[in-house]
Description:
Elements: H1 11-22, H2 25-31, H3 44-53, H4 63-76, H5 80-96
Amino acid sequence: xxxxxxxxxxxxxxxxxxxxxxxxxxxxxxxxxxxxxxxxxxxxxxxxxxxxxxxxxxxxxxxxxxxxxxxxxxxxxxxxxxxxxxxxxxxxxxxxx
Length: 97
């Protein structure tokens, strides 16, 4: 099971992120440069980012669960992200079985 590494950000993506970090959305609206877009109208750097994020799931853990996960990771030597994935897969199999 090999994992693909995410592609490096392109020059356009880096410029787009710098622009977002520099100017807030409220300032853009105030200046008349902000607008609401449909997903088909998103700029290319944003659509590429969203395509990469489509396969990801972000999980928020309670602090107790995170400590438990870290302790288990230290004991087994398995990285936290892989261990979390295993826990989720086992939970799905339990619920499906």
